[in-house]
Amino acid sequence: MNIIQQLINHQNFTPTEQSINTYILENIHSIAKMSIQQLALATHSSNAAIIRICKKIGYKGYKDFKLALAIELESQKFINHSVDFSTPFYQSENYYEIINDISSLYKETINIVQAQLNINHLERISQLIINSQRIFIFAIGDSRITAMTFINKLMKINIYPILATENYEEIAMAYNMTPHDCAFFMTYNGTNNQFKTCAQILKRKNIPMITITANKNSRLVDYSDICIVIPDMENDYKIGTFYSQISFQFILTVLYSFIYKYDYMHHHQHKKNLDFYIKK
């Protein structure tokens, strides 16, 4: 759920907090330019009351809230609001309409995620994958399928990630890792208890961790050295995991491209030689 939805739907605000909340929603595009003192003055409230609101919706304070809101508003510029990411089409639609719906879903998903990407984070993740002795990928369900595609791409350029969750031995895998390895968690909701246990083990062993998730409150975010958090656009009553898997696939494709670019001519020649034998 995004910030604006949280502000609209939150049920536990005090009357003072609700008054501040109403002002924020009515002046949403001005908040990013306001200091906490200016907001307190405009709402006849206090800094403490504003900070309480921020904490109730999952932020450490006003500064974190304001930054996240600015990013969300920027990403909203790319969103076609006719797209429903959980139910992108309905039974009453004809096949041509469904094709257009799914096309819009793909385009809007990529636009939203692209607006969130941090080049520095992507570069750091790419370098970590390149420089690690072993890359252990933690992914289950539909995320596992997307992870397998990423693994397949890397194998073609002589990088061999290990799918730690392949035989449900992820805790043993985590325990056997060394600081020369890296762990890569791919989980949309970020609530898997096994992953949490793995992350605790990895943190104690000082093993670098990467996470892609849509849950900014996940403990994996706290444990990870580098994290990509995408907007949570799906609800529990979805037709399929369209948005989440398109998002992950797009991010992983960008990471693969960064890795390929790092030693472009070598990878290009290697793949060319490989393709020669595959096509024989």
Automatic annotation (TrEMBL):
Keywords: DNA-binding, Membrane, Transcription, Transcription regulation, Transmembrane, Transmembrane helix. PROSITE patterns: HTH_RPIR, SIS. Pfam families: HTH_6, SIS. The keyword DNA-binding applies. Residues 1-76 form the HTH rpiR-type domain. One of its GO terms (molecular function) is carbohydrate derivative binding. Residues 125-265 form the SIS domain. The chain crosses the membrane at residues 242-262. Coiled coil: none annotated. GO terms for biological process: carbohydrate derivative metabolic process. This is Uncharacterized protein.
